[in-house]
Structures are given as structure tokens and as C-alpha cells.
Amino acid sequence: MSAPQYMQGRGFVVEVIRTPRIKSARLQVEDGAVAIIVPLALPSERIKKILNEKTRWIKEKLYLHQQAVPVSGKEFVSGEAFPYLGRNYRLKIEAGAFQPVKLKQGRLLVTLPKTGDTPQLVRSALIRWYRSQAQQRFAQKVERYAKIVGVKPAAVDIKTFKSRWGSCNVKGEILFHWKVILAPHRIVDYVVVHELCHLKHHDHSAAFWKSVERVIPDYLECKEWLKRVGAQFDV
Predict the structure, then answer these.
(1) 3-state class of 16 per DSSP?
(2) Strand order in the sheet with 26-30
């Protein structure tokens, strides 16, 4: 899969992901972010035509998402603080052609065109960045802790869950809520170990918690922290 590109739509930004694994274009709107997955050789003009034809559908999906998520306490303006791995970083918004969010000199830099939908564009850009960071960090941590736990997960992926931080299925695939990346490292480690231990124990039995405790001795504190603080994560 090649590195993503970006196209400006009418009131939204689209991530273009080229891959040899599909033969036709596929649109997706998740967490208020729009992406189009396309074959490697599909011309940019064809992609633009698809986006123009699907603009109404995309905007309807974005509207439904905005109605479904809780009202954020964030304003998405320069100077506002956003957490990442337990630390707060100030947002800096610059006008220009859309660019992916960068963590630069201790600030979360967002570059995008000025539009009436700027707060929503900033939010979707931040979520894209959080999800990308989560994908990388979780893959690294799973690789590290899988050896300690003594398991081999089939795959690691990032999802959006309504009421859980992670999931492990019968295929051995482990899924994590991207919002866990807002928490400190030790909390992220706990969530990773928790799901890895489910590859050995598919319940929350005493044996399961013993497996977790062997790797994360203070797991009870981590569990309580997530319950108390995690519910307040706001992006």
C-alpha cells in the first residue's frame, strides 16, 4: 500500500489510499474523516470525478456522524491543548493547502484551507493523525509484549469502539480503540497486555488476571485510571 495522498473536496478533505489489493474505488467515512481506497493506477482525474459524483453522499455521512457523536468540549482553535501519550500539546493552525498533522516543536501543526467548516476539518485531521500514531505505536508494543506473554497475534488494527478499549477475536486478531493513544505509555501498555493475554484466556478468569499481573504488576491502577479518566477523553 502506498503512502496516502490528499484531495480537497467541497467542504471536506479526502485521503486517497492507493493499493494493489482492489480493482475498483471504495469510499469510506469514519470518525468524520473521508477516505477513498483506489487501485494503484487509477488516474487522479477519475478519482476527482468519483468524489464530485459522491459529494452529496459524503456530506450526508459527515452530517450523520456529527449528529451521532457527543458534543465536543473542544473548539479546535490555535492554542488549545490536546493529549497524546499522556502529555498535552498545543494546537497550531496555519492556512494553506491541506497537509497531514505534524508534531513539530512541541505543537500539533494543522495546515488547511480556510473554510466555514474549519473546526470539523481540524477535528478530522487530528483524528487521522491519532489513528496513524495509534497504528504505529500499537504495532510496536504488540511486537514487544507478545514475546513476553508468549503469543503470536494474527493481526493488529485500529478501530472506533463505543464502550471498550480493545478486542480480541477467535481469529487471533487484536483491535484497539485509537483513543487509547491519548493515555500515558503505562496505560497503553496495560491495554496491549490485556488483549494479548486474551489470546491465552478468552475470559476474565482468575488465570487471565494472573497473566496480566505477571507483566503489568500495577494493572489494577491502570484499569481504574482508564475507568476514571478514559471516559473523559475528548477530541
Answers:
(1) strand
(2) 5-8, 13-19, 33-39, 26-30
Q: What contacts 232, CB < 8 A, 6 or more positions away?
A: none
- Name the burial class of residue 182, with classes exposed (0-12), middle (13-18) and buried (19+) by CB atoms within 10 angstroms of its CB: buried
**What would the grid cell of residue 82 be?**
490536546
Amino acid at 18: R
Distance of CA 102 to the CA centre of its chain: 15
Q: Are 9 and 33 in contact (CB under 8 A)?
A: no
Tens-place pLDDT, residues 202-226:
999 999 999 999 999 999 999 999 9
Q: pLDDT by residue (tens digit) across 146-163?
A: 999 999 999 999 988 888
* pLDDT reported for residue 193: 98
| Burial bucket for residue 178 (CB in 10 Å: 0-12, 13-18, 19+) | buried
pLDDT 10s digits, 156-205 = 999 888 888 999 988 999 999 999 999 999 999 999 999 999 999 999 99
Q: Give the burial class of 11: count Cβ atoms within 10 A of its Cβ; 0-12 exposed, 13-18 middle, 19 or more buried.
A: middle
Report the half-sphere exposure of 170 (CA within 13 A, side-chain side): 0
